[in-house]
Write a structure and sequence with these properties.
Layout lengths: L1 H62 L8 E6 L13 E4 L4 E3 L5 E4 L3 E8 L2 E2 L3 H10 L4 E6 L6 H12 L9 E3 L9 H19 L4 E5 H6 L11 E4 L12 E10 L8 E6 L3 H10 L4 H12 L2
Length: 303
């Protein structure tokens, strides 16, 4: 009996000690959580302060660059853009602000650096393509031609149609496959196969490694698979921040409402990701040894 009472007393005496230990552990755990939370918040704020201004500066320098901007700008045209005054086209320049502006009544300052033209869609073709290409070449512009893929039409026939109409060679930009979001069919796995068939067929027929045009969302959700890792992208993203797929886009169509000298209506405007001298190097590399293309890709990505 005395021993039993003694054990009970001992147990009663141990309980407060255990509670204190648990309480101490809780205090340590709470302190650790608070500390790590504060550190995480501090890091997040630092990143926010660093990234947000740089993103704004990056976009500002794209849309409103200084005269000596390292960026190059271009336009893309289809049958909807006619009556261009090729002798006059260029980006408006605002002397007061030392910036390019995409609106009328400003002085033209910087030239357009590249022109992409719609050649075909499915088995149809753009009747204004040949004339636009002739005018562009006559005025010293290198041109690129794009094809809008129609998934329910024979892919090889589409490829043949594009090659016959576009009439591309190594003096041009490489072929361009335009993947419009509203024309993508399901299942996506089958659509990807059809897109790759067009890309491979056209590359074999022309000797040029195609560029792919699509929206940022399409790139991320549908074409973000290993089969497309070897391709560069021209991304449509009408926003103040660059495309999410930052590793492989080379052209960014950042507005469909641009205005240029020499044309009265709205127009799509794109920017080249790299420096001025890199655009021509990349263009040439698309028609030659893949190693040359990889070298210029790495050079651009280092910027």
């Amino acid at each position: 009996m005395p021993k039993k009472n003694s054990q009970k007393a001992g147990n009663k005496g141990n309980k407060p000690t255990t509670h204190k230990k648990r309480k101490a552990k809780n205090k340590v755990s709470t302190a650790a959580i608070v500390t790590f939370s504060l550190l995480g918040l501090a890091v997040a704020l630092c990143l926010l302060v660093t990234f947000v201004p740089s993103a704004k500066v990056f976009f500002r320098n794209l849309v409103n660059p200084p005269i000596e901007s390292k960026h190059l700008y271009g336009i893309d045209l289809s049958r909807y853009q006619n009556e261009l005054k090729w002798d006059e086209i260029g980006f408006y320049y605002d002397k007061r602000k030392d910036t390019i502006v995409f609106e009328a009544n400003k002085e033209k300052r910087l030239p357009i650096s590249f022109v992409f033209l719609k050649a075909t869609q499915g088995r149809a073709y753009d009747k204004t393509y040949a004339e636009k290409k002739e005018n562009a070449l006559k005025h010293g512009y290198k041109t690129g031609a794009y094809h809008i893929l129609v998934s329910d039409t024979n892919i090889v026939e589409q490829a043949n149609n594009f090659v016959n109409i576009a009439q591309l060679d190594s003096s041009n930009y490489p072929p361009i496959l335009d993947i419009e979001s509203n024309l993508i069919s399901r299942p996506y796995s089958e659509y990807r196969k059809r897109a790759l068939l067009w890309l491979n067929t056209v590359e074999e027929m022309t000797g040029g490694k195609p560029l792919i045009y699509c929206s940022d969302k399409t790139r991320e959700e549908i074409l973000n698979t290993p089969e497309f890792e070897d391709y560069h992208f021209w991304i449509a993203r009408y926003d103040t921040t660059p495309p999410k797929s930052s590793d492989d886009w080379l052209f960014w169509q950042f507005t469909e409402k641009g205005r240029i000298n020499g044309y009265k209506g709205k127009i799509d405007v794109s920017v080249w990701k790299g420096k001025k001298d890199e655009l021509e190097k990349w263009r040439q590399s698309c028609w030659h040894d893949p190693k040359a293309r990889q070298a210029i890709e790495e050079e651009i990505d280092q910027e």
